[in-house]
Design a protein that fits this description.
about 45% helix; 2 domains; Aspartate Aminotransferase, domain 1; 11 strands; alpha/beta; 7-stranded mixed sheet; about 475 residues; Aspartate Aminotransferase, domain 2; globular; homodimer
Chain lengths: ~475, ~475
């Protein structure tokens, strides 16, 4: 008999575990002093790693040592208080501890039976979150719908499109495949590329995607949408899905769901609302206007607690009004996955709500975050971020060298130096190279525009002030003030 | 200015973190005493949870208390030494600690620039693993290929099919969509349902899937494959992908890749090898025969270290021979995701290798597992599991009441009581209700068959012996011996 390998004993796990907990706490304590954007050259990290793995096991302390010396310099620090690029990927103590619990439990939630609590906690916490966001009961398990945690908003868009195709074809796509020439999907010119990716993945091809023009505030123009759909229907095409965005990636523009919805209803088109970044702001009653129309018209809705609601990636909360359409699109059952309870249809088997079969116990982290912050704590985080962004915007507006490039209804500020693009590129490059802050960019009305996205867990007043000071003084240098 | 919420301080995180580390260690110490298959009724877990989330934050200790009282009874314990269902989802101390590090770092690996070390460690460790498995350089970044961590083998199958469609259409699917009437995909009648799911997702529909008959050992019959492809080509269809399985979900049958491969080569068909469970066994040179033909013929190959190689879910190692085909199929770039280094094509941006955009730092756990076990430790784990399974099979073979239903080349044993299905259903139900062991079932040659899958981290000699004793004595009771 071959003996078992030497596993790490639980006593060793306790010892190394305490060291790792301290490593993480130390990291959070010192992350503000590290360069937020990694300054390594391509290939530099790999060059520090040995060509071959070790023949015999090494202690975990060796892993931690190499983490410090080789990997940390190669990290861009998303939890740094000066991280303002893209959108935040905010984590928190409760979320991280829950991830540790999830990893330690090591259960699979593909079916109810494979770990009932994994499924039922997810149903429950997503029902909680629906209530916190002001979504109606039809998106919960009390109604005909329900929520599921996807890894990302991209995956939510993909499964929404699959459900839409399933509904539009009355299930025929399952066997017959997709009639690429027949279906069209719609989104604004400013929407996330994930819909194009989903159109490619589902076999529609990007030619099936109609990009609808935007209004002055970069939100989708509902009149243009109506025209596009009407033209397509006249041409014999089927408008299968509209994706409206609540908080676009580029500028956080908010599409008018209350005006897009009636058009979808008129043509029988599935309405998916991608609220990846902004949706969680609706935990604050005064910001709930951003999803006006969702309750009445959306067929599916997704927002990412892993972006701005303190829940570690990956945690996209994806809701559908009619769970039968989603399950119909994705359910394939083989004998080795049959169980008595599933057959009785008394339980949810989340394998049929997503692309992969297996799934981690991700509900634990959302549950821990909601409980440890409480509703008031979540609201305080959102309100704090919004207030910081509004103040930053007033500084930009008050400085004649700069201009605001889009409204900032939430915590993203889009701005630039007036005039040519080149000084703006230099400004971005210079401040990012400083290691103190990290911003990304976008194009607004064909102009190179800087984005300052607030919402990181560690970001405070002083960090936003320091960011403005650095941007302003760097601009002075560039402009030769 | 709205103040920031009260976040868990790093001092509190250290304190609660130690408690969580101890909770996990205690859980591992006691898991063998818990019923492996949860005994809750549908809805029971939800009934124990409050209808609404708390208004104000609660201490993390409250989360742990409810975890104990409400959730743990609702868990099916995948890390229990008596868990023999499906395939193992084996985790380990190093993997769990690395998950904690990954959560604490909270970086996004969607592009090289968003955290270079996240990307480069993944490239490096997957190159290491390719070497450990005996895969040739063409599947590494030293060649034209490379590896990527997907969440699951289902996602690996999906991206392989997308790459195959991209290649077969010379990129036209990107814009034009998929010509569902034209393409066919092939797999054995015993293969995983994930290919059907992928065919539906990609718009081909299940009608495009040809199920190829199997030989006596449940492996794909290459002659039948050749006939099916030849017929389809004659009919003007394009054989776009064959999925061969190394270790089927049902019985761990191993398709003859060395005979399937030449057929794919002849017809220009993409060959994906799904080695989700079994592939990692190739870390042992004496088991490397299972992937005979992969080096010469596979276009893509995937195996799950999260199943049998001690790495916590999710960690599917997915390799392609030609990374350009995969990136061509999945790359969609918008301005807000542009970076100078990406444009220079000197780095890997893993967003273009997968369905979602965002990604966790999953390479850390595979790195930690390989380093802490060393090559010899990984081999010892595989050899131990195989030895335990072989011994169990000898007990079954020696008992006239039972019959083995398939070869057991690795660590899965398929067996049943001779005769009717009903006593076998009762046997399964009775032993699973005992709480001591958990097995799942499949159908082999239309007969209800029990599956005992070995490979869990905690499973030892005595647990397999106890499983046999329970099965044997339960059978005696059922058969009235």
């Amino acid at each position: 008999m071959h003996p078992a390998p030497e596993h790490m004993s639980t006593e060793e796990f306790r010892r190394h575990g305490r060291a790792v907990v301290d490593w993480v706490a130390d990291y959070w304590d010192r992350v503000a002093s590290l360069p937020v954007l990694s300054q390594v050259a391509p290939g530099q990290v790999r060059a520090g790693l040995p060509d071959k793995p070790p023949e015999t096991g090494e202690p975990f302390t060796a892993v931690l040592a190499d983490l410090d010396s080789i990997l940390v310099p190669g990290l861009t620090h998303w939890q740094h208080p000066g991280f303002f690029a893209y959108y935040p990927s905010s984590t928190s103590g409760p979320a991280v501890l829950a991830e540790l619990l999830s990893a330690g439990l090591g259960v699979q939630g593909m079916m109810w039976q494979t770990s009932p609590a994994c499924t039922e906690l997810e149903q429950h916490v997503l029902d909680w979150l629906a209530g916190l966001l002001g979504l109606p009961d039809c998106f919960t398990f009390a109604g005909s719908g329900g929520g599921v945690i996807q890894d990302s908003a991209s995956s939510a868009i993909l499964v929404a499109l699959l459900a839409a195709l399933h509904r539009a074809s009355e299930g025929r796509v399952q066997t017959e495949g997709v009639d690429r020439a027949r279906y069209r999907v719609y989104t604004s010119t400013d929407a996330h590329s994930a819909l194009e990716k989903a159109a490619r993945i589902t076999g529609l091809g990007t030619a099936a995607v109609r990009f609808i023009g935007t209004r002055a505030d970069s939100s989708m123009d509902p009149k243009a949408l109506r025209t596009a759909i009407t033209d397509d229907v006249r041409a014999g095409l089927i408008p299968v899905m509209v994706m409206a965005t609540v908080g676009t990636t580029s500028t956080s523009a908010i599409d008018p769901v209350d005006r897009i919805g009636p058009i979808c209803a008129e043509f029988g088109t599935w309405l998916h609302v991608d609220a990846a970044y902004a949706g969680v702001a609706a935990v604050c009653p005064e910001l709930r206007w951003i999803q006006h129309g969702v309750a009445d018209y959306a067929d599916s809705y997704a927002t990412n607690p892993h972006k701005w609601l303190l829940t570690a990636f990956d945690c996209d909360a994806c809701y559908v009004r009619d769970r039968a359409a989603l399950v119909g699109a994705l359910s394939v059952v083989r004998e080795y996955l049959r169980s008595n309870v599933s057959a009785a249809d008394t339980v949810v088997d989340y394998r049929d709500w997503q692309v992969p079969l297996g799934r981690r116990f991700r509900a634990l982290k959302l549950w821990a975050v909601i409980r440890c912050y409480g509703v008031e704590g979540l609201r305080a985080h959102i309100r704090h971020s919004v207030a910081l962004a509004q103040r930053f915007a007033t500084w930009v507006a008050a400085d004649d060298r700069f201009e605001l490039m889009a409204p900032q209804p939430l915590s993203l500020v889009c701005f630039r130096l007036r005039g040519a693009d080149e000084p703006n590129r230099q400004l971005l490059q210079t401040v990012n190279a400083s290691g103190q802050i990290y911003l990304s960019h976008t194009m607004v009305r064909d102009a190179f525009t800087l984005r300052l996205a607030i919402g990181g867990t560690a970001t405070r007043d002083e960090h936003v002030t320091a960011a403005w000071d650095l941007l302003s003084s760097t601009a002075s240098g560039l402009l030769g003030d």
